[in-house]
């Protein structure tokens, strides 16, 4: 499985990452990526930038080191109503919105609460993908959430860092079940390194191995082809990115 997009990466703007977007793009080029999603933490995360940081991504070049730059965010799930920590006015400036649970923002609760929050955030229409769902601190009704995600064209991330055991300990077991059930349900998957340092860009070996284990077909993995990913954004109602015309 050839992965040409990393859909989850951080720069030093996140407050606990250590590279610039220029350094990340160069690493992406050296690892033969075609697109790089830059997805710093949204404002509710300690150390994260002000929402203006995300609104101002329009100044970023569409290509850095010949790698296409997807302007994004890793937003925080705030509550059971499915709200995220950016105002709706920010949406027009973003190509790619990840929604994730983070302990400092949404303290772990019950399976029912986590399920309600995830379903509501899917139905809000404001997020494109659910990030690192394998975190065992946030159990949820897997079939209910993945079925809803498929119905609303929201992708499911396979997060490589979650599979390393370095953070979100115990995620590997739940990630295995999520990919197994997601394959049966027919969701669209993405692959994110969750890089917090440039050398981690495109480190996706464990995510790829998990997808292969469950015989996930490439057509269900958005990151295997630039056109597949970009057309998914169109399906999500995003405007066509003229600078990427040759990649559609």
Automatic annotation (TrEMBL):
InterPro entries from the xrefs? Phosphatase_YcdX_put (IPR023710), PHP_phosphatase (IPR050243), Pol/His_phosphatase_N (IPR003141), Pol/histidinol_Pase-like (IPR016195)
* Binding residues annotated for Zn(2+) 2, in chain numbering: 16, 41, 196
Which GO terms are recorded in the biological process aspect for this UniProt protein?
A: bacterial-type flagellum-dependent swarming motility
Q: Which UniProt keywords apply?
A: Hydrolase, Metal-binding, Zinc
Instruction: Quote the record's cofactor note.
Output: Binds 3 Zn(2+) ions per subunit.
Q: Which family does it belong to?
A: Belongs to the PHP family.
Establish whether keyword Zinc is in the entry: yes
Q: What species is given as this protein's source?
A: Photobacterium aphoticum
Cited SUPFAM superfamilies: PHP domain-like (SSF89550)
Q: Mind telling me what this protein is named?
A: Hydrolase
